[in-house]
Specification:
Number of helices: 2
Number of strands: 3
Number of domains: 1
Largest sheet: 3 strands, mixed
Radius of gyration: 14 Å
Helix content: 40-55%
CATH topology: Ribosomal Protein S5, domain 2
Low-confidence stretches: 91-96
Shape: globular
Structural class: alpha+beta
Strand content: 15-25%
Strand order of the largest sheet: 1-3-2
Length: 96
């Protein structure tokens, strides 16, 4: 899965926290499969979303393997991505 993120400007921090979106195109299957991918990812984000404390916009572009992976693996992957994202903006703000 590919994850893109963008830190929000200082003024936007008070308005909203973390926003997560998913890009699940037709090449990943029919509507039923795409919706199942999104449901699995939403649940993983719900479980691991507390790891992020910095206001961000995140877009997750999954692979079709999300359908067949054990949910624990999906949780681990989302957690690993959020952990890396959570560390990255802090480093940038410390450097400034």
């Amino acid at each position: 899965m590919t994850v893109f993120y963008l830190a929000k400007p200082e003024g936007a921090a008070a308005q909203s926290g973390v926003r997560v979106g998913f890009t699940v195109g037709r090449q990943l299957g029919g509507a039923v499969e795409r919706n199942r991918i999104k449901r699995r990812l939403r649940e993983a984000v719900r479980h691991r979303g507390s790891m992020l404390r910095v206001p961000l916009d995140i877009v997750i572009n999954p692979k079709k393997s999300v359908l067949t992976l054990d949910f624990a693996v999906v949780l681990e992957e989302v957690g690993r991505a959020f952990e890396a994202i959570g560390k990255s903006p802090k480093k940038r703000t410390q450097e400034k």
